Amino acid sequence: MRFWNRSGASGAGMAIVCTVLAFTGCGTPPPTNGRVEISYWEKWTGFEDDAMQAVVDDFNHSQNRIFVRKLTGIGEIERKLMLATAGGDPPDVAGIWPATVTGFSEKGALTPLDKMVKEAGIRREDYIPVYWDLCCHHGFIWALPSTPTSLALHWNKKLFREAGLDPDQPPHSLDEFESMSERLTIVEIKRDGKVVRVRYPDLTDAEKKARDFKLVQVGHDPQQPGWWMPMWVYWFGGKLWDGQRQITANGPEMIQAFHWLQSQSEKYGVDNRRSFGASFGNFQSPQNPFFSDQIAMTLQGVWMYNFIDKYAPQMEWGVAPFPAKDPAKYPLVTIVDADVLAIPKGARHPREAFEFIRYVNQQGPMEKLCLGQRKFSPLVNVSDEFYRRHPNPYIKTFMDLAKSPHAQYAPRLSVWGAYNDEMNVAIDRIMALSATPEQALDTVQSRMQWKLDRMLTRWDAVRDERLKEWSDHDAR
Amino acid sequence: MTRGEKRNLRLGLAFISPWIVGFLAFTVFPVCASIYYSFCDYDVLTKPVWVGALNYRDMITDTVFWKSLYNTLYYAFLSLPFCLVIALWIAVMLNQDVKGRSVFRTIYFLPSLVPVVASSMVWLWILNGNFGLLNHALELLHIKGPQWLADEKWTKPSLILMAIWSCGNTMVIYLAALQDVPRSLYESAEIDGANPWVKFRHITVPMISPVIYFNLIMGLIGSLQVFAQAYIMLGGGGPNRSALFYTVYLYQNAFDYQQMGYACAMAWILFLIILALTWLATRSTRRLIYYGGE
């Protein structure tokens, strides 16, 4: 009996130990030779991750005090970071997006970098201004860029040629864009009992009105890929909020942009467009509608080169600024975004983490990273070697767009996620012709103003305390 | 309690302590905490701030909340009867003494073994408006199929169809109950000249009524909590939030909009809805259920 009790007790102990090990993980990391080890969470995979790993390796070899351990391919990094930070066990460095910076910083979940940035002699002037601004919120800096992006019009030169358009002349205004888009649109229609393919402008008025055709190629589909739908307003000179306390979802420019969107459904038919959309393959595949000659012009980012290179290497393509409604007033409109490196609140080694971020933001490592990811550098100083070695023939266009005073980004609002969702629902409604732009946008305006007011009430209550805390913050 | 019994009790508790700790830490505590958070403005990252019943009051004016509730009830009240009836019908068929019965049983049970993520990905293709198998089959009947997942009128029916396809679990439970119905009852009825429908209506259904009730309650709870397939196939709720189910909206509030307090309040309202409907179902079916020996 005694024997059984003793072994039983040790069995119970083992059960507990096994459970604890199962929960905590029991892998042994490689030794870091007494160096301060900082953990770095990043979302990239594939060649983008390889590019960052090369920079991390260079940093680890460049000195013997700090060792960066990168955990990569973290999906839904924002949610995981939120839970890790709330649980008091965040990484030292997190590769996130500026949209995350907004909400996280307001909630005190990031470390302000102002003092460390100042000590390191890093200045706004060192960067293309929008990328610096993307890292700031409420007058404090919360992150530094790793890689930047901007968007531009990509067009298929072969389809331009087939439509009788000059393949080297992209549209210069939205009106010109729209008429070229019609020319590039091909439909299948029954004429005299036979199915024929006709370009949209060659349809009779009655055929256009009946919309009894099938789309086989379109000049442009504003819902493809649909990642920036609420931000079409930038090409109409509008904005999504006043930068202070007011949502401007139903402003005149927004209504104009929504009428433009809705005109696609009115022109080509709701069901025809749905049916055409259902024929698209995955974005990252040769069946991407831009690669498979189904869409002639598309708004895409600097990363598109990588996918063209991989899935449609034979494609003849060009890049130019996406034309605005009023090109004289808004000549170079784009949406910019970036990957940024931030230090979550509660990180164990913020000083060492900043050392790494600072290293990445030096010209040499930054060019290595951006070249590896085939993007451009967010820094103002760029070597000739960078351009010479860069495989994307249009890299300077993206950089020029980012430098434009009309380079825009998603509103720096912690309720942007909800705002974006509301706008997409409004777009669903207008594209299905079940609401007018005014009706759909009024709904968004009232819902989002209510949400913003609620958020601001809370922010106002903690504002002074937070600003003082951030001003006094010293990572040491 | 003797010393030996006490020792055994301690030992037993030590053995099950991993479960007890897990249950307390990951079930009891979160459930209790969620009651508190439901009365707070809480975003996970900062400390919760007590706001009283504000979250509950907000729900009343939140049109998306009502839409998600409508979508969920629509789904539950259509998918549940279909699933119960079709699963029972298949179970009765598979209970017949036919050749290859076990093969058929396996075939009908298989869909419920497929992980929900995998089946959702398959259904995304089956329901594709242009290349999907379903529209192809309809085309053979000269019917033009809709854009199932792109047209807001068809998103909920698509998910209901998918739920019916995977009712294998319900069917297996019916099958087990059907096999427990005494043969002697059928034989007596046959002697009295009862036809198959009369036997089904007056013997089978009453005898398996506790199992029908069980499936009803479990199905009700499951369908009101539908999440994975809708989230995978239609992301943020599909076109015009036509398939934004209650739990998906709850998840959005908790993790996309960082309104954990509001999400907790929604969770408690869902609990109360399920409790009320279960009570209603229990009460309204009380006289219809036959428990042996009563």
Write a brief caption for the model:
Chain A has 476 residues and is of the alpha/beta class.
Map the helices and strands.
The complex is a heterodimer of chains A (476) and B (294).
Chain A: H1 2-24, E1 36-41, H2 46-62, E2 66-71, H3 77-86, E3 93-96, H4 98-106, H5 114-119, H6 129-134, E4 136-137, E5 140-141, E6 143-156, H7 157-162, H8 174-183, E7 186-191, E8 194-199, H9 205-210, E9 214-220, H10 252-268, H11 270-277, E10 295-301, H12 304-311, E11 317-320, E12 334-342, H13 350-360, H14 363-372, H15 384-389, H16 395-403, E13 407-408, H17 416-431, H18 437-472
Parallel strand pairs in A: 1-2, 1-3, 9-10, 12-13
Antiparallel strand pairs in A: 3-12, 4-5, 6-10, 6-11, 6-12, 7-8, 7-9
Chain B: H1 3-37, E1 40-41, E2 49-50, H2 54-61, H3 63-94, H4 101-109, H5 116-126, H6 133-140, H7 155-165, H8 168-179, H9 183-191, H10 196-207, H11 209-224, H12 228-234, H13 246-256, H14 260-285
Antiparallel strand pairs in B: 1-2
Helix pairs in contact in B: 2-14, 3-7, 3-8, 3-11, 3-13, 5-12, 8-11, 11-14, 13-14
What does this structure look like?
- The complex is a heterodimer of chains A (476) and B (294).
- In chain A, 45% of the residues lie in helices and 16% in strands.
- Chain A is an alpha/beta fold and 476 residues long.
- Chain A has a domain at 32-149 and 337-411 and 458-472: D-Maltodextrin-Binding Protein, domain 2, CATH 3.40.190.10.
- In chain A, the strands form 2 sheets. In chain A, strands 1, 2, 3, 6, 7, 8, 9, 10, 11, 12 and 13 form an 11-stranded mixed beta sheet that branches. Chain A has a two-stranded antiparallel sheet with strand order 4-5.
- Chain B folds into 2 domains: 1-34, no CATH class; 63-288, MetI-like fold (Orthogonal Bundle).
- Chain B has 14 helices and 2 strands; from the N terminus they run αββααααααααααααα.
- Chain B has a two-stranded antiparallel sheet.
- In chain B, β1 and β2 (49-50) form a beta hairpin.
- The chains are: A alpha/beta (476), B mainly alpha (294).
